[in-house]
């Protein structure tokens, strides 16, 4: 295979280390988030088989941020290319063994984003390799459904999004528009509302709250006035979202303001899921059909007493008794690899039938 | 006078152009905002007089942003120094004629901010010059009260803040903590909520609204999905706040969602004013004392039918019938100059008495 990319040195190992004979064909699954990027290399499974549980993983590689909105396109591409090369090298394989790649990245909000990334991937892999670009939420869904695109996924970490698919391939999303555009149930949203509550209490516009002393102590500040400088000193969303555990602790200790913020976030997260379920008709005409609801992200993980994920499930199940909540056992990058496997199988079958 | 600053060339004109004999002593007032910085040079008025209405202005100079949180300290300092030199040059004066300077800048939220700027100003002006550093809201108040620090000012432009003083010098503020920390009544807040409403309607989480077609048309976009890319492409708060007129037009055309956003902003702005009035007791014990409420900023200016400022005044007057609403006839930089004059007079009188 010719070197097709500018960063030729990334692929130098392909010449230096020939593939182990019989290593077989592989697929790559990538989960590219705002914090880190994970690439999974999986063996390709013979046509008749379903992926085993847990799916076989040949190698796993990790790199930094690959959200082009955050680090720019050139840096995002280099990160993605490096992490793929790293995973192939670790698995004793190389590009000639790759049959399919699924790249699930945050910041893919529009078909033009998808096409731009596909064009660039095609520059690295020859035309017989199946290439699939998805929003990272799709890989998160697949991580809970073993690669099947059916049901709804709710992600709530620093950001939040709900994404769903029907069995016949229709899709819908809600939220995922970032902190300026109303993702209030996210970790960032919860923490920003807690900071706002501290400022409001200090101003005399809001109730006194335990959040004041807890947040100031956590950040090593002596007055709510200093929160303004702290907040704008570094615009990273993850830095603000890191205050979520403080809010949960205050709520668990009985603080009304903190409890109100968490209940509002439960309501917001549930309303994203409901919007997706409703638009896709996942609950069927009688509202009682069963569908998987995959729950992913730090905000939805269980805490001592306040379990935001459990409250969201309770809220959704009231409307849709067929909700089957799933907390995935594998990471989203494995979901992406399973997706690549499924897409590739479908296309191969279609090829065989035609 | 020796050159005391690094940017010596800024003051070169002082050697090249001697002061016109008898030009007299002057004061400088500066209003440093996130968009621009204005410096006013006023003649100093004999001790017994009050400033005339309108106050006499010798020169006016304009420069760019001087908010150190936004452009960094070095750039902010250079802008402030240049705009002062420019105003003095235009008035045919120089630093030796300056008796007092009031620098009112946004981003002064803490006594340490104030002290840092004072230390640096002292490097430019000798010790007999009165130097005063204030939050820019204080100059806005003074622009409506002809330099008297009494009453409350509400600013609502891109950002919002309420700031008040009692006659015996106590002060209080509310809001002014920026978009992350709950300044929802601001121009930025109104526009961000409108953008959120478009996303929510598109997702199926909110009511259909006229804002969708109006905002997409204004921005030249074809789908709400494209709003995400547009929003995060440039994080400038002013760029988002520029959508306020679209929201007002939709509200005037009867759109419920737009009307709800504007009424919420009225409520938020009024609650900032109430917090300040309450904490300072500006309304007296019976709640009926009169006090000035100075209204400043684009959001509070009258529109065809929807007049946010008028609604805020109506709302405040219900609680505090002694509210005297003032829309200033002079700009905040003139307010800063009047403040410099007042501070300087007080210190001179104190000096004469002691």
TrEMBL record, chains A, B:
Superkingdom of the source species: Eukaryota
ATPase BadF/BadG/BcrA/BcrD type domain ranges (all copies): 28-340
One Pfam family this sequence matches: BcrAD_BadFG
EC number: 2.7.1.59
Transmembrane segments: none
Top-level EC class as recorded in UniProt: transferase
Molecular functions (GO terms): N-acetylglucosamine kinase activity
Family under the similarity heading: Belongs to the eukaryotic-type N-acetylglucosamine kinase family.
Name of the protein in question: N-acetyl-D-glucosamine kinase
Organism: Morus notabilis
